[in-house]
């Protein structure tokens, strides 16, 4: 019984850490995508073209 509990605990801990890794990675990716989009938008705003059109 105790072994099963420990196993569940370990699985939960592993899953949580994996989720944390994934979420932090996604946040980083989102940040980079946003900055890229912003740069594209800044570049294209000189030519009066929407940023999403270029990307």
Describe the model.
- With 55 residues, the chain is mainly alpha-helical.
- The chain has a domain at 1-29.
- The protein has helices at residues 2-45, 51-54.
- The mean pLDDT is 77.
How are the SSEs ordered, and which strands pair?
Elements: H1 2-45, H2 51-54
Brief sketch in words of this structure:
By secondary structure, the protein is mainly α. Helix content is 87%, strand content 0%.
Distance between the termini: 56 Å
The percent range for strand residues is under 5%
Class from helix and strand fractions? mainly alpha
Q: If helices are DSSP runs of H or I spanning 4 or more residues, what is the number of helices?
A: 2
Large-scale geometry: rod-shaped
Pick out the low-confidence regions. Answer: none
Rg (C-alpha, Å): 21 Å
Task: Determine the mean pLDDT.
Answer: 77
Which bin fits the share of residues in helices?
over 70%
Q: Largest beta sheet, briefly?
A: none
- Kindly state the number of beta strands: 0
Following the backbone from N to C, one meets helices and strands in this order, namely HH
Brief descriptors of the model:
55 residues, mainly alpha, rod-shaped
């Amino acid at each position: 019984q105790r072994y099963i509990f420990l196993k569940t605990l370990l699985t939960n801990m592993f899953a949580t850490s994996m989720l944390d890794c994934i979420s932090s990675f996604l946040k980083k990716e989102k940040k980079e995508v946003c900055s890229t989009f912003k740069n594209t938008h800044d570049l294209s705003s000189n030519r009066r073209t929407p940023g999403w059109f270029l990307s």
